[in-house]
Amino acid sequence: MPYLPKPSDLFDRAAEWGELTTFMAPGGPDSLRLGVVYGRRRQGKSEILQQLCDATGGLYTLALEQHARPMALQRFADELAAWAGLPTGLGFTSWEGALETAVTIAGDKARRSGSPQLIVIDELPFLMTHSPELPGVLQWLYDAYGPMRGGGRPPVRLILCGSALSVMSDLLSESKALYGRAMLSICLDAFDHVTTAEFWKIDDPETAFRLHSIIGGVPGYRALTAALPSPRSVHELDEWLIHTVFNPAHAMFDEVDLLFSQEPGVRDRAMYYAILTAIANGESTPARIASRLERDARTMSYPLNVLKRSGFIFYDEDLLHHRKPVIAIADPIMRFHHTITLPRLQFFQRRGQAARAWAQAQRTFTAQILGPHFEHLAREWTITSLADRTGLEIGWTGTTSVACREHSVSHEIDVVSLALGDMPRTGSARIVLLGEAKCTNRPRDPRDVARLEHIRDLLGPRAQNAHLALFSRTGFHPDLMAMRNRGDLVLVSLEEMFPRS
């Protein structure tokens, strides 16, 4: 099969499309190939797989949450018959028969056409709720028709897709039936902040930054709010929020509930909401979260693991020291909901009160949403753009803190990068960059450089040649701009973090 050009109406996703095209190509010990595509809802998984089926003449079938096992099998049979041009009346009593028949039919089509044939099963976790044997059936199918039996079989491609991160990421894990059998595994993630600004057609960096801090880079939110124009200014963004995220009549208002509903492990909704609210309020360890909930700390292990496997929280480890990791909310819209919306829910639920509640939340929004998000984007910029800007090659990048006896404090460092090849939390790791990201309204000045120089001295010989980076949302003082030609100083503005295409 020749290389498939990316569809013109598929925004971005060039790398993912290239991986899918490679997966579809003939060659090697052909036979049956297995692939997995997963990611949070509204990331565009179904769209890209439907586009792939359209380009290759493949079979796309979507499992429905409400269907019981007999209905799901019949739906699969009907769609398989329509794709293969068979008479109606095809039916199955088991997934073994259904999937073996599908692979056999696809193999016959591959022989006739001379091209690999594609079968996509979307939302596999919905099927697994009533058919938990499916991973084992797929293992048997792969072992019977895959390259383990040698070449010479017709080329068939089977892609499994789903939105439940905990289920899909576990599908290929060690000790599971499909471990080591998938040739392709793609986690379709949200757009980065630069791509998000381009996708929403926002030129103003401050507006793009605020939007990304609230809803992240989930492409499906633009279609969900298509009735409203994209916000082009901070004022328009405020109006957009009142009509969408803060509007009980809009689907965006219940998005967090919908995200929870996709994860089978999240059962006690009230408890998980309470945990996320505690994290949003700054509780960053299991013990502190348990204390906020008035629970035994030993009971936190299971629900925190469920939230981590589901992609709702992450553990941020100190790059230099062996310390307990900091727990944080991973999804921007979930962080925004538990920090801003949920504490003021009674006001947002009442008509005419949203604007006042949003105005009263501005200080919290700046401190708990914009500040941490700006620090995150500073680290992203360091990983993706620092080398192009300065020629400085870096390795692992993250955060750390440095104890200071002189000031009786622990200096928090927003951005720290190790030398390429050095490993985190090892005493020999060399530090090549120390950075501070400030989201305040005060332009950065030489005092900020002095603070970084002091921290560099505290770190000793391992950091003696480290560059210093200042990231500012509101620009730089003229006295600091006069220092910009220093060989060890990097100044990064919000405009540079959101470059226009």
Overall description:
- There is one protein chain.
- With 501 residues, the chain is α/β, with parallel strands linked by helices.
- The chain is built from 22 helices and 12 strands.
- Helix 21 links the parallel strand 11 and strand 12.
- Helix 9 crosses helix 19 and helix 16 packs antiparallel against helix 19.
- The mean pLDDT is 93.
Shape designation: globular
Distance separating the two termini: 33 Å
Radius of gyration: 26 Å
Mean pLDDT: 93
CATH class of the largest domain: Alpha Beta
Beta strand count: 12
How are strands sequenced across the largest beta sheet?
A: 2-3-4-1-5
- The CATH topology of the largest domain is given as Rossmann fold
Query: What is the CATH homologous superfamily assignment of the largest domain?
Result: P-loop containing nucleotide triphosphate hydrolases
Which percent range describes the beta-strand content? Answer: 5-15%
Helix fraction? Answer: 40-55%
Multimer state: single chain
Regions with little confidence, pLDDT below 50 for 5+ residues: none
* Main β-sheet description: 5 strands, parallel
Total number of distinct structural domains? 3
Separate helix tally: 22
Instruction: Specify the CATH architecture of the largest domain.
Output: 3-Layer(aba) Sandwich
Structural class: alpha/beta
